[in-house]
Amino acid sequence: MPSWIIPAVVCFFSWGMWGLLPKYALRSISANDVLLCEILGALAVGICVLLISGFKVKLNMNGAAFAIGAGICNYVGILCYVYAIRNGPVSIISAITALYPIFTIGMAYFMLHESISLRQFAGMILALVSIVLMAL
């Protein structure tokens, strides 16, 4: 079994629960409180991983800038997701937001010059069509 299978499956279930749990949280706390609690949860996981791995700081400013940008994008996305599900159906909103890889793939094509096969492009189009059908 490839070494990436177990982390990919854990990611699948973790992100699946992440899409659902904030809807429950919004029943009793505000969207801003949800964001704060998610940050605290992420911080707890991050600290545990760093402590277990014996992490030592070796920052490169270029890499750090990209990583900080990734963190900003992540939490802007989380905040917008929480605000969207506050008043909308989590089933449709999570499906729409789950299409983010299409944007990533497009950016990888243009910025990193990665190739996209005709079959992959067709899959992206079908994913977009499926969201339109779900949302209508």
Mind sketching the topology for me?
Layout: H1 5-25, H2 31-53, H3 61-87, H4 90-97, H5 100-111, H6 118-135
Describe it:
The protein is mostly helical and 136 residues long. It has two domains: 88 residues, no CATH class; 38 residues, no CATH class. It is 80% helix and 0% strand. Helix 2 runs antiparallel to helix 3.
Q: Would you tell me the structural class of the helices and strands?
A: mainly alpha
| Share in β-strands | under 5%
Q: Summarize the amount of helix as a percent range.
A: over 70%
- Counting DSSP H or I runs of 4 or more residues, the number of helices is 6
Distance between the termini: 40 Å
Main β-sheet, in a few words? none
Mean pLDDT figure = 91
Total discrete domains: 2
Low-confidence sequence ranges:
none
How many β-strand stretches?
0
Rg of Cα set: 18 Å
Tell the overall outline.
globular
Q: H/E series, N to C?
A: HHHHHH
Write a concise synopsis of the structure shown:
With 136 residues, the chain is mainly alpha-helical.
List the main descriptive attributes of the protein structure presented here.
single chain, about 140 residues, mainly alpha, 6 helices, about 80% helix, about 0% strand
